[in-house]
Amino acid sequence: MKRIFELTTSDIEGLSKQNLKEIIKNSEGRTVVSENIVSCSPFIREVSNLELSAAFGADMITLNTFNFEKPFISGIDGVIDLLSGFDEEKIEKIIKDNLNNKDYIRNIRKLIGRIIGVNLEPVPEGSSYNSGYCLNDNNLLKVKEYGFDYIVITGNPNTGVTEYTIEEGIKLAKSILGNGTLIIAGKMHGAGSGNIYDEETIKRFIDAGADVILIPAAGTVPGFDLELAKKMIKLIHENNALAMTTIGTSQEGASKSVIETIALNSKMAGADLQHIGDCGTFGMALPENIMTLSAAIRGIRHTYRRMAQSILR
């Protein structure tokens, strides 16, 4: 079985959830997950943030603010430039085509050669949050139709998401997606409502159907240190789930030394996956920080190979 940083585009196509889970587990804490805000202009105008994340060493790429009702990924489908204007009619046509194209995400996966997931917000009933971003029946059916490899059930700022809405969201996702899509769930910061450090809550998430539990990386939120991270990850592993530590507090735009410290602490804590957030600049981590994270947990040899595999099929 290949490790995650050895997978080519052809390896990824048709990869089952169980195989993906085993590959991550067997990669011994060396999986890099990059989150991208897909609704803003890309860091480099001539290339999408997804391609840039892949080029700097990401294995998995999570789409944030992906609108299932108006699917448009900036840099892939074009760039909406508010300063110089944009062709509204052309963009509407692209969105319509994307809505009707079952291979929309599958084609993007072929383009960048990486495992692709999406954030879904389990907002409370009555929320005015954009329904295209929310965890609901229609969007979950679209997840299945488009062929996303995984979903992340979490809370962006000002969403009102709580541990209870996450738990119910996991149950709904499991009922619709079954065993076809990896489910990642948890909270990485204080967005929504409160942080989740409670052991019983983690167990409930796993019992509800989560395959991976996400927690803040040590040093990213106040009071969350290495010992607490180790304790949480031990609990997650004892309950047969994987653990993902996250940098979701804009430290994805911090110095390389900060990234290296967080990465090594997460590895010492036992993390199976390490996530780097989308607010370093222009909807993604600083590209060099993705590479720094990769090199810290798997060295230059595997990092450079991963970077070169952006062009391998």
What does this structure look like?
With 313 residues, the protein is α/β, with parallel strands linked by helices. The chain has one domain: Phosphoenolpyruvate-binding domains (TIM Barrel), CATH 3.20.20.60. It is 41% helix and 13% strand. The protein contains eleven helices and eight strands. Helix 8 (199-208) links the parallel strand 5 and strand 6. Helix 3 (49-55) packs across helix 11 and helix 7 packs parallel to helix 8 (199-208). The chain is globular. The two termini are 18 Å apart. Pfam families: DUF7916 (PF25509). InterPro entries: DUF7916, RibuloseP-bd_barrel. This is DUF7916 domain-containing protein. Residues 6-313 form the DUF7916 domain.
Keywords:
313 residues; alpha/beta; TIM Barrel; eight-stranded parallel beta barrel; 11 helices; 41% helix; 13% strand; globular
Q: What's the structural domain tally? A: 1
Describe the biggest sheet? Answer: 8 strands, parallel, barrel
Q: Give the neighbour order of strands across the main sheet.
A: 1-2-3-4-5-6-7-8
Give the overall shape, derived from the CA principal axes.
Answer: globular
Architecture per CATH nomenclature, i.e. the level-2 architecture: Alpha-Beta Barrel
What's the helix-strand series? HHEHEHHEHEHEHEHEHEH
Question: Count of helical segments?
Answer: 11
Helix fraction bin:
40-55%
Quote the distance from N terminus to C terminus.
Answer: 18 Å
What is the CATH superfamily label?
Phosphoenolpyruvate-binding domains
**Structural class category:** alpha/beta
Specify Rg, calculated over alpha carbons. Answer: 18 Å
Task: Say what the CATH topology is.
Answer: TIM Barrel
| The CATH C-level class name | Alpha Beta
On the 0-100 scale, what is the average pLDDT?
Answer: 92
Q: What is the number of E strands?
A: 8
Q: What percentage of the residues does DSSP assign to strands (E)?
A: 5-15%
Low confidence ranges: none
